[in-house]
Amino acid sequence: MTPPSATLSAVDPRTGATLADYAETPVGDVARLVAAAVDAAADPALADPELRVEALRGAARALREAGDELRATCEAESGLPAGRVAGELERTCVQLELFAGVVAAGDHLEAIIDPADPDARPVPRPDVRRMLVPLGPVVVFGASNFPLAFGVAGGDTASALAAGCPVIAKGHPSQPGTNEIVAGCLARAAEHAGLPAGAFAAVQGAAQELGEALVDAEGVAAVGFTGSTRAGRALFDRAARRPVPIPVHAEMGSVNPAVLTRAALARRADAIREGLLTAVTFASGQLCTKPGVVFVPDGPEGDAFAWAAVTALADAEPAVMLNERLHHGFAASIEQLRGRPGVSLLTEGAGPGDAGFSHTPAVLTVAAGDLAARPDVREECFGPAVLLARYADDRELLAALASFEGQLSASVFAESPADDALVDELSAVLTARVGRLVFDAYPTGVAVTWAMQHGGPYPATTAAGHTSVGLTATRRFMRPVCWQDAPQHVLPPPLRDENPTGIWRRVDGTPSQAPLGG
Amino acid sequence: MTPPSATLSAVDPRTGATLADYAETPVGDVARLVAAAVDAAADPALADPELRVEALRGAARALREAGDELRATCEAESGLPAGRVAGELERTCVQLELFAGVVAAGDHLEAIIDPADPDARPVPRPDVRRMLVPLGPVVVFGASNFPLAFGVAGGDTASALAAGCPVIAKGHPSQPGTNEIVAGCLARAAEHAGLPAGAFAAVQGAAQELGEALVDAEGVAAVGFTGSTRAGRALFDRAARRPVPIPVHAEMGSVNPAVLTRAALARRADAIREGLLTAVTFASGQLCTKPGVVFVPDGPEGDAFAWAAVTALADAEPAVMLNERLHHGFAASIEQLRGRPGVSLLTEGAGPGDAGFSHTPAVLTVAAGDLAARPDVREECFGPAVLLARYADDRELLAALASFEGQLSASVFAESPADDALVDELSAVLTARVGRLVFDAYPTGVAVTWAMQHGGPYPATTAAGHTSVGLTATRRFMRPVCWQDAPQHVLPPPLRDENPTGIWRRVDGTPSQAPLGG
Question: How far is CA A326 from CA A228, A273, A323, A330, B21, in A?
């Protein structure tokens, strides 16, 4: 256990220099914060969709207004390049606005109405109406690699607030200044919109006890987390041991296997390689959707592809890692991986760069058969590294893919019609293991849309039935309630006959926006 | 731990006589059964909706054809009255057919299509299409109190098969003959429809090791359970400790508080009392939706209601319990409950009847304030018993209701407009605690419809986000997968442009049955 400390230091990973100190939230504050969140959960103001829409839109406005200071702070604390931080800030704002739109449309409610049917068999059917209601206070643990989009006002917070849940957000301790600015924007927007005081709170801290106290607190109803498998599983285990267990939606990263067919390489090796170099080095490879293992065919096309990738990455600038822990962790991962039987490191060095927490990128290689045989070769290496898995034929390729555990995503680069039969086989083996299957692109971009699925079977997440990105992410923090033969005034407005805001409802089995009995 | 035994004895609870012996499934068979289920999960035949529709409909036909023998066996093994068994069989068949309809319509897939948008901000949007896919092999633990509707071919099995998951069903060991007949019907229907051999299997056993081996088996992806809090929580804990944790959907029963307002009693005390007597004695009160605690106002109307209820139940026939364990458990529960401070047993006896495992019904009473103060007074008493909680005023009523943990349901008997303001307050406090809120009826009937919610916050279930009854029950056994920029031939048919079977899909945010680009 890490002993609690009084302050958090922000460090510039580009130089290793300390930027500023921030007060840690005392563990003793948790009870008060959770009590306020429990009060907020029962407050009709938080149940009012108009107020939540205004709070989410106001938060986006406030974050854009804080732009210059926020971006500068985030760049300094994360070492992420300016373009990436600017894009992530805009994505974070758009995400808040998209969830506001979901709330305004009532699409998160999954409203269902089954009118009474006195002729139903085996017994007459009552009037039953159902919608999703918020679970209650949600604790969010932000990720270091997306200080904004998966941070204090990131996707977990936005979707939980959209669902109607109070949120206590713990930003990543690597970026305390960023967390503080974002928390201020969101808190002011929530207050200005008229949400109750406990609807949103932020905490800061690196001490394990703080996170544990939040997960243990009796009033907390669910947890959202983005980070490592070790930390995510620890939270999951802790939440499962509570007297009242609660769901932990932990997104824990992935190797994201990519498949390059011989035909695809023959036709467009350069474009595929350029894409790979970007995917592996962008944000220093610190993306949960980075293609960590790339299947490259044996033979001259594959050799040429591997050689060109090694050459390009050997010349790449050292890449800044987000913090000292990841910096040491990356070097240790590469050392471990290169020591596994059959694995070779193809780039010289992959050691630390000159300044701060930076590394040169690494390319490793292994035979697909060796990768299939050893789980420790399929583990995520978080940072600018890629493992090229060389395969002899389709049979070996499919067998190696079948060895993978749950993944967030996989990608396939293939040619039609030559590869059509293989692609069908690849799809079968991959969809059984992933949340998202991407064609002719690397999975690093994750669009915030209705259909997006950012999740997958364990160990990619602890809750394969849900997504942490995209407009169905609210579903994680809601539960169904039905009302049987209820008077109109008791029903929540979305379930009343007149359908006052014209939301989509499943009425007697069929989607409809119409009022009832009209 | 219960030592494994070679045979299960069916016992007629009406007499205590042994009916027949059945072989227990050896724990050593689990690995083979799970391996077959894993194979079936990857078999395209199980993914074919038409074959699953035929299997579900065929199972309903086979169960109806087995009617005479099945009903007789079930009556003898459960002690449930003939009318109840016949109704439950019909409900089981209708349920299988309703899920077949869901599969035929593609409504369980929650299909979503976001067409590409090159103008999207902050980055262009790819084509993303998502639907739910089956989780994999599901283990179902049947309940003793619904040997058919929550048994080997009950709601968990029907919804898991509808979802496309192989099922290994363990019927309740109290009714091995019933389990055997039902398993035969379902197995033959699955085979006749062309489902793979491992798509359905049934096991029999009372040994704890058998259930544990099923939950531990590596290939199992989810668990459905209906039964006691103790057993459900043990399975949940075990599944959470696996190297790869899996979801446990345990429905663990409930007290189901019912509220009678003073105005409702003044107007229709007789009808409310008649309903209560039926709800408490039907199936010997062995329903997870039995109203276990009924809030009755202080004063002459409440006294008269309580007196009439006691008089009627004191004259009731001894009720047959499902098995010896529940028989002893019920007597012990009553003894414990009557010993709590402030609780009185109003009926003479509540002791065992003459023959077999039967009891006379029991009425107990407590002050609402005492109930609010003691969790052990709010515990479920499984059998023909009801606790009348007397309240002085609305404040005391609401405070007592706020003391309850998660419940499957609650019911409210009130008069409009006199009680309108109170009913709004009751709804707020109850919807925060229950899955279903029923007006002017007891919750014992659970209609199988789209909007039905049979679930609730812990300890009513281990998965408040889902339901075990109703047409959304398939959602428990599915997870989303999305395809990004996939060629048409790779996409599952429900996500292809032409929408071959005309299912409802959310296209660019809006429900539609239309093909794309038409």
Answer: 11, 26, 6, 6, 62
In this predicted model, what pLDDT tens digit does every residue of A66-123 receive, in sequence order? 999 999 999 999 999 999 999 999 999 999 999 999 999 999 999 999 999 998 876 7
How far apart (Å, rounded) are the C-alpha atoms in residues B127 and B484?
Answer: 6
Using the beta-carbon criterion (under 8 Å), do B437 and A481 form an inter-chain contact? yes
Q: CB–CB of A437 and B483 under 8 A?
A: yes
A229 and A296 inside one domain: no
For residue B182, what are the domain limits? 29-252+466-476
Residue A265 has pLDDT above 50, yes or no: yes
pLDDT given for residue A215 in this prediction: 98
A497, part of any domain: no
Encode burial over B400-430: b for 16+ CB neighbours within 10 A, e otherwise.
Answer: bbebbbbbbbbbbbbbeeebeebbeebbebb
Considering the domain architecture, whether residues B143 and B225 belong to the same structural domain is answered as: yes
* B284 and B205 together in one domain: no
Positions in chain B whose pLDDT score sits under 70:
1-5, 122, 349-354, 518
Residues A70 and A204 in one domain: yes
Report whether B470 contacts B114 (CB < 8 A).
no
Chain A 458-517, CB below 8 Å of chain B: which residues? 458-459, 462-467, 472, 475-476, 478-487, 489-490, 504, 506, 508-511
Q: Is the peptide bond before A459 cis (omega within 30 degrees of 0)?
A: yes
Q: pTM for this one?
A: 0.97
Residue A116 in any domain: the answer is: yes
Q: Does residue B282 sit in the same domain as residue B180?
A: no
Q: Which CATH number fits the domain that encloses residue B181? A: 3.40.605.10
By percentage, how much of chain A surpasses pLDDT 70? 97
My answer on whether B240 and B176 are in the same domain is: yes
ipTM: 0.96
Into how many domains does chain B fold?
Answer: 2
Answer yes or no: is B495 within a domain. no
Residues B240, B346, single domain; the answer is: no
Which positions 403-442 of A are in contact with B (Cβ < 8 Å)? 405, 416, 420, 423-424, 427-428, 431-432, 434-441
Q: Which of A444, A454, A468, A484 is the best substitution to test chain B (most B C-beta atoms within 10 A)?
A: A484
Determine, for residues B490 and A457 on separate chains, whether the beta-carbon distance falls below 8 Å. no
A268-295 pLDDT per residue, tens: 999 999 999 999 998 899 999 999 999 9
Give the residue from B479, B485, B504 with the most A CB atoms within 10 Å of its CB, the best one to mutate.
Answer: B479
Residue A231 and residue A208: Cα distance in Å, rounded?
Answer: 10
A98: amino acid identity, one letter: L
A251 is catalytic: yes
Task: Please tell me whether residues A245 and A270 are part of one structural domain.
Answer: no
Whole-angstrom distance, CA of residue B187 vs CA of residue B202? 9
Whether A458 is in a domain gets the answer no
